Amino acid sequence: MSTGVRVMVVDDHPMWREGVARDLTEAGHLVVATSGEGRQAVRVAAAARPDVVVLDLQLPDVSGVEVIHGLRAVLPEVRVLMLSASGEPQSVLDAVKAGATGYLVKSAAPAEFLDAVRRTAAGEPVFTPGLAGLVLGEYRRLAVGPVTPDAAAPRLTDRETEVLRLVAKGMSYKQIAERLRLSHRTVQNHVQNTLGKLQLHNRVELTRYAIERGLDD
After folding, report:
1. Beta strands in the chain (DSSP E)
2. Which of 30, 60, 84, 199 is deepest in the core (most CB within 10 A)?
3. Lowest-pLDDT choice from 60-74, 170-184, 188-202
4. Which domains, and CATH codes, for the chain?
5. For residues 185 and 93, what is the distance between their CA atoms, to the nearest angstrom?
6. What is the mean pLDDT of the chain?
7. Nearest Cα to Cα of residue 21 among 43, 57, 53, 46
């Protein structure tokens, strides 16, 4: 039996917050804290040390984006899954640029949400269908062209580069594993090794790195 994820739920609607916490607990995860306000959430998270924070975009005191910045300041390794009623492109991009690992709209099915929490904890970018393409498209727009390789840049193995190219195309670990005929765990290991070599923190940053270097062609 796999160990559950340590999760914190931040939403200003008590019934919604409690419902999400209940679903997580029933799925075997550990809800270490809940909060209805952004500033309080940052303080509580510093003590509760969740693996994943499920965060609403609209909070009564500060925006979800500000909360992400606060969380990353006190817990640099924390993963943030936005769970919002808004699927507006700008809201999604603002959240991802601030450091969110994934973005799910509240109309998602419970099974989709629970899968998103598990994948977020593993460092996979998770987006409501249609939003992943939006984020990748924005990265491509910001990348003015392939970056000249740095002679001092860490050298990746051929397999790590191959996995990196597929990450840049927005493929999930499962899809990459099937494409390359590898196990899911092996793909995860390649991604983690690559993150370490490049001194990046998550797959969102890794995707940006790959696209900036033209590896998504």
Report:
1. 6-10, 30-35, 52-55, 79-84, 102-105, 126-127
2. 84
3. 188-202
4. 6-136 (3.40.50.2300), 144-212 (1.10.10.10)
5. 29
6. 82
7. 53
